[in-house]
Design brief:
Length: about 400
């Protein structure tokens, strides 16, 4: 049996646009309505109305924390116009979590932006960071007494690459320069947001907050040991996995390291061009692994390797997302169990783990992939909005209850 600490954080995650429904003031909704995106979120899971029901389920599953995001475009639908009724909504969300003795872990930016911010240039404009920081100041001032854990930005490198390099997400641009600019601006925004959050807690004599980002890390492996692949491995590991974390550590602006981990990236660079070195993957099914329904490689050992690599930073580590989309719930449980075992193995070797958050609590809108990928511990019938707990969720609940696997 592998044991976990008594004070370990266990839970699942959601994000506002993926579950709430009708986030009509953000850039994703706009792109959905003008058909720039093929699929629309619509009512999503109606979590905006049904959050109490969803949190009651989380409580039944023994979760003691829940990660969610506060939708900036609801709070500030027009520049400088804050909606007090929406602030009160999220106050009730946090209060409901507290009733169930579930620790709120609040994300301040999870891919979506208010339309007015996006149309002014969004994250490509350095001088527009001030608007995000004003939002951070407003939200943290409102909720500091109820929230200890904050995530300023979810997967900044995924946001910058998908929105400005690959052109898959709003504003659907393909510019290496803008990708780099957005990444730099997000790093600077986190650093300033971190300072704002700590200042508010200090001024109000509150306990020290725990502030981080949620960094998407991948297990990079090479298909064949060519010189190109070895260089690509070095570059991807350095740029994708550790660049952002190390930038923030240099400024002492991480209280813990939040990581999102899903699986393996099998490198097979086909030229010496930088795009090839940074993006090419094996397309011949070499070294095959089990896959999720999106075709992502399942590689629990990669989580162990990354956690060991993160030990050198000597900070607490929180897995802020780890999960699988599949119709096969037995595979879901295998995925969870194997990743928990690898995490526990890393803990035995000194990784300072403080928690595990599964993605996601409920099936939801998976961005440009639509509603087909089902990551949830809880099945959602999108026609009726009925929730059904999956068997894998019950098995995870037993691990949490017993504190061992």
């Amino acid at each position: 049996m592998k044991k976990f600490p008594q004070n370990f954080l266990w839970g699942a995650a959601t994000s506002s646009h993926q579950v709430e429904g009708r986030n009509i003031h953000n850039d994703w909704w706009l792109a959905e309505q003008d058909h720039s995106l093929k699929v629309a979120s619509g009512e999503a899971c109606r979590h905006y109305e049904l959050y109490a029901q969803d949190f009651a389920i989380a409580c039944q599953l023994n979760h003691n924390c829940h990660r969610f995001s506060i939708e900036w475009s609801r709070i500030e639908p027009l520049e400088g116009k804050f909606d007090t009724s929406e602030i009160e909504h999220y106050r009730q969300v946090i209060a409901d979590l507290k009733i169930h003795q579930i620790e709120p872990i609040v994300t301040l930016h999870h891919f979506t932006n208010p339309v007015w911010f996006a149309q002014a240039g969004g994250w490509t404009k350095s001088d527009l960071q001030k608007y995000f920081l004003r939002f951070v100041d407003k939200i943290v001032t409102e909720f500091a007494g109820q929230v200890k854990f904050w995530i300023t930005i979810n997967e900044p490198l995924v946001y910058s690459s998908h929105s400005y390099l690959l052109g898959a997400w709003p504003p659907q641009e393909c510019s290496l320069f803008k990708t780099a600019k957005v990444t730099l601006n997000m790093a600077r925004a986190h650093i300033k947001a971190y300072q704002i959050i700590h200042k508010i807690y200090q001024e109000r004599s509150l306990g020290k907050p725990m502030v981080s980002i949620a960094a998407n890390l991948q297990a990079f492996e090479i298909c064949t040991p060519t010189l190109k692949n070895k260089l690509a491995l070095y570059l991807r590991h350095k740029l994708y996995n550790f660049y952002f974390i190390e930038e923030l550590l240099r400024k002492n602006t991480l209280d813990y390291i939040g990581i999102n981990y899903y699986g393996r990236n099998l490198i097979d660079a086909r030229s010496w061009k930088i795009r090839s070195l940074l993006m090419d993957t094996c397309c011949y099914n070499h070294h095959p692994l089990r896959k999720n329904s999106l075709g992502w490689d399942i590689y629990p050992q990669g989580l162990y390797k990354l956690l060991i690599a993160l030990k050198k930073y000597n900070l607490p580590i929180l897995i802020t997302e780890n999960g699988i989309c599949t119709e096969n719930d037995d595979l879901r449980w295998d995925y969870i169990r194997e990743h928990l075992e690898e995490m526990n193995k890393a803990m035995e070797q000194g990784a300072k783990m403080i928690g595990y958050i599964y993605w996601s609590l409920i099936d939801n809108f998976e961005w440009d992939k639509g509603f087909d990928p089902r990551f949830g511990l809880v099945y959602v019938d999108y026609q009726t909005q009925k929730r059904t707990v999956k068997t894998s969720a019950g098995k995870l609940a037993e691990v949490i209850r017993n504190g061992q696997i």
